[in-house]
Every structure is written in C-alpha cells, then in structure tokens.
Design goal:
There is one protein chain. This protein has 2 domains: 2-64 and 141-279 and 290-325, Bira Bifunctional Protein, Domain 2 (BirA Bifunctional Protein, domain 2, 2-Layer Sandwich); 346-442, Anticodon-binding domain (Rossmann fold), CATH 3.40.50.800. The chain is built from 14 helices and 24 strands. It has helices at 2-10, 32-51, 67-72, 75-78, 142-147, 149-156, 201-218, 266-274, 281-285, 316-327, 360-374, 389-398, 409-414, 435-441; strands at 14-16, 28-30, 56-59, 64-65, 80-85, 92-94, 115-118, 121-124, 134-137, 162-171, 186-196, 226-230, 242-250, 253-264, 296-298, 303-305, 308-315, 328-331, 336-339, 348-354, 380-383, 403-407, 416-421, 427-431. Strands 3-10-11-17-14-13-12 form a 7-stranded mixed β-sheet. A 5-stranded mixed β-sheet has the order 21-20-22-23-24, with helices on both faces. A hairpin with a 4-residue loop joins strand 18 (328-331) and strand 19. The radius of gyration is 26 Å and the shape is globular. The two termini are 31 Å apart. It binds adenosine-5'-triphosphate. Residues 172, 174, 183-184, 187, 189, 256-259, 313-315, 317-318 line the site of adenosine-5'-triphosphate.
C-alpha cells in the first residue's frame, strides 16, 4: 500500500484533499492522471450497463436529498455504525475495531458501550439555519433512482425486466476512514437498480453476480483475487433478502469491492406507502404529499405490482484501488516500476515524444500525430516536449501509458516513428501511415 500511495502522489494520481491546510481525514483528490483513470473506469461501466445492452436507462440526479426520502427508505433509523468512545484518551472507534475490550490507541479498557451513530451528513437548505429546513447529502445514489422510477417508466415506457443506472457522489460520515481511498467520507458509486417481476428475482440475482464478476475481470482484476461472500442473515441491510459481496484481496486484506443485493420491493413499496405520511406536516405543506404509485401495471392480469430490485453497487474509489493494486509491477531487473493497466483504463493512451525539445519540425510532426490519434476518441493522447526520452519512458511506465511514440530526425526524412511497448519495452519502427492501425490494436 505504501508503494502505491507514494506512486499516486509522485505521479499525480491521488492527493490528500485540502493538503496545504493540513488535509482532512477520509478525503482525497484525484490529480491529472487519477482523474483520467476514474473517467475511464466509469465510462467502461457505463458502456457495459447502457450502450452494450438494451434494457437499462441512465439517470443523473441530485446529491441533496429530502429527509422525507431518507426517512422512508429506512436510512434515518438504520443507516448507523456502532460507535465506541474511549473515556481515557477520548478517541472514537467502530465497535469492530475494538479487540479484547481495549482502546486500540491507549489500551485503556474504560470504554463506553457501543451506540448507533448515523453516517449521513446533513446540511441546511436556504438562508435560515434554524434546523427547520435541511437536506441530507445522499449516502447512496440508489434512493434517487427509486423516487424517479415513475418519471422514467412514464417517459420511456419500460416494463420489467429493465434497469436504471447512475454514477455519482455519495457521502458517509465514516467513524474511522482508513486504508487510503478504501474507506472515505466522500466517494462515487456506480449503481444499477434492475427491476424484475417478483418470483424471477433470484434468477436475476445470479445473472447479475455473473455479469459483475466478468466485468471486473475485464478491468484487469485476476479472477482468483475475487471471492463471493454471502452476507449472513443477521448482518443484512434492512431492505435486503440476500446480498453477496464481491470481495477483493486489497493490500490491507480481503474486503468488499462491490455489493450485489436483492432489495426486494422494499424501497418502491415504502416510497409508495409513505408519500402521504401526514405526520410530517412540514413536508405536507410544501405539497410533498402526493400518492404516486411506484408500481407497474400487469396489462394481462389487469393488476398493479411492485417490482423487485436487484442492485449491483460498486465504489469507484475501491475499483481504482483494486485496479492500481493489480497493475502495480516492480521490475528491479529493468530498474523500473510500471502500471500494467488494461489500455482502455490507461490515463494516457499514447505519449508522443519529439527526440529534441523545442525542435520545430519534430514538435510539429508530434502534434500532427497527436491530433490524428486524439481524433480516434479513445482518450487522452499527449505530446511530451521535454527532450529527455529515458525520463519520459520511466514516467509513462509508472502511469501505465501503453505506448510511447518517438519522433526523431529520421521521421522527417522517411515518415516513420519508433513505437515502444510499455510491457515488453520492445521498440518497433513503424510507418506514419500505419500508426493509427498500430494504436487501435491496443484497444481490441
Ligand atoms: P462496508 O461494509 O465496507 O462499509 P457497505 O456494505 O456499507 O461497505 P454498500 O452500502 O454496499 O457498502 O455500498 C456499495 C459500495 O460502495 C461498496 O461496495 C463500496 O465499493 C462503496 N463504498 C461504500 N462505503 C464506502 C466508503 N466509505 N468509501 C469508499 N467506498 C465505499
């Protein structure tokens, strides 16, 4: 983990957030390289969920969420972790971090009993901060999918089986954020809510487990590092009939990368039942007491039913950490470190390096090659006008650029370039007219 963290800082992948003011625990920023990696991972998920299928629609909803939604989803009551205080050193822990009844920091046994701590962040809405008008920062993207269910069904005429997918920020006030970007307070989720007829849910649950394992292996995660773990009945979330966690062997241990839950008809059912909850007068006054049915009409049987939901929910940060961990390779024999990333995830797809810095002819040709490759639309291609080939190769090995293209004086004479492969370090002379094909082969 330390080697990864240091590479991430050195090469602009991930920085501690608010760093110049001492940082903030559990928050990280993605630098130029990390941002591209994250975009590529999210695009790969979006492509597999939406473009390569015909039964899933996308959504981009707000982060600020009405307390009404999170009350009836069960989050106000149950989205908690057990919190333990050390009375001696005043540190706070999640109950599962306490061993032998001792404070992990000062070893005192003078601890409070565990009590539930709600993980949701609250914020005031509007200029008057008297607690009467507030919103939550969503703790999962899923709830906004459920409350938009009718909008999407009405506007797309979908009937089950179909899904709604969303990628976006989620916030959890984790008691002890830790292990780099594994457990943080602000992160992104890639969530699919797949709506099916009751009775077909178990079959679809298995289907999505298979799909998700295949997808992770396409992102370069070795299948033998992934394990499926069925969550025990007493540990299931309040909405779940069955949940399987896709576990990955992270540098700090075997932990959850993605959860695939059978949420039954709990969420749609609960939002349908509770929208006209007159006990909450403040919301009612604001006209939030509609009785929208979050249900589907079975046209043959002429009856309404509430679909069951299968939810694969993956964290982008945990995905990035797993992918970086898999790709990280040290080759002492070649005196280098490299990220063996799958090309579709590589932050930089190709680096074009003029042999001599600021030589107008070389640099112009480099830009021409760059714009041709850039136009193919596979991601960021860049010109490295620093003149130090060895240094550029090392940098691009470390950030996982699959190929470096060197423009030298021979290129001006015979229209050819040298292409160096990241993994084999093999160099090949390629005609300019062939470069696009050569490049495209990396993405097949
Ligand atoms: P954990 O048990 O590790 O706290 P969880 O079961 O609460 O996770 P879910 O509610 O199933 O997590 O959320 C779905 C996904 O969101 C997780 O599989 C994970 O990838 C991601 N995730 C959840 N909490 C965090 C966090 N604090 N930091 C980063 N990613 C997170």
């Amino acid at each position: 983990m330390e080697d990864l963290v240091s590479l991430c800082k050195r090469r602009g992948v991930i920085f501690p957030s608010n760093d110049i003011y001492g940082g903030m625990k559990g928050l990280y920023d993605f630098g130029p390289i990390g941002t591209e990696l994250k975009i590529n991972l999210k695009n790969s998920w979006w492509k597999s969920m939406i473009y390569e299928r015909d039964d899933v629609e996308g959504l981009d909803s707000t982060i600020l969420t009405s307390p009404f939604v999170l009350r009836h989803s069960g989050h106000e009551d149950t989205f908690t972790d057990p919190l333990v205080d050390c009375k001696k050193c005043k540190s706070r822990w999640r109950d599962d971090q306490i061993e032998n009844g001792e404070c992990p920091s000062c070893k005192s046994k003078d601890l409070t009993d565990p009590r539930p701590f709600n993980l949701m962040f609250k914020t005031a809405i509007g200029p008057i901060d008297d607690g009467s008008s507030f919103a939550y920062l969503r703790p999962e993207t899923a709830q906004q999918i459920f409350v938009n269910f009718k909008n999407i069904v009405d506007s797309t005429s979908r009937t089950p089986p179909f899904g709604i997918a969303q990628i976006g920020k989620a916030f959890r006030n984790e008691i002890t954020p830790r292990n780099f970007i594994f457990r943080v307070r602000e992160f992104e989720q890639m969530e699919l809510e797949f709506f099916v007829k009751p009775g077909t849910d178990e079959k679809w649950h298995q289907y999505w487990l298979d799909q998700r394992l295949k997808w992770w292996s396409k992102q370069g995660i070795a299948s033998d590092k992934l394990k499926l773990l069925e969550v025990e009945k007493e540990e299931l979330s309040h909405y779940s009939k069955a949940t399987f966690d896709i576990m990955y062997q992270f540098p700090h241990g075997l932990e959850e990368l993605e959860g695939v839950a059978n949420r039954t008809d709990f969420d749609l059912g609960s939002h349908t039942k509770n929208q006209n909850d007159f006990s909450i007068q403040a919301y009612v006054q604001e006209n939030k007491n509609s009785t929208t049915k979050l249900a589907i009409q079975d046209l043959e049987k002429k009856e309404w039913f509430i679909p069951f939901v299968i939810e694969p929910s993956a964290g982008v940060e945990r995905g990035v950490l797993a992918i970086l961990n898999e790709a990280y390779t040290e080759e002492p024999e070649n005196n280098r470190t490299l990220l063996k990333l799958r090309s579709h995830l590589s932050p930089i797809k190709a680096a074009i390096i003029p042999l001599k810095r600021n030589n107008a002819d070389l640099v112009n040709l480099a830009h021409k090659v760059k714009s041709n490759l850039q136009a193919l639309g596979l991601g960021r291609v860049m010109v490295e006008n620093s003149g130090n080939i060895g240094k550029n190769y090392r940098r691009h090995d470390e950030i996982g650029t699959p190929m470096c293209i060197t423009i030298d004086f021979e290129s001006l004479e015979n229209q050819s370039v040298t292409i160096r492969d990241r993994d084999t370090m093999k160099q090949e002379r390629v005609n300019l007219s062939e470069v696009e094909n050569f490049y495209m082969n990396y993405f097949k």
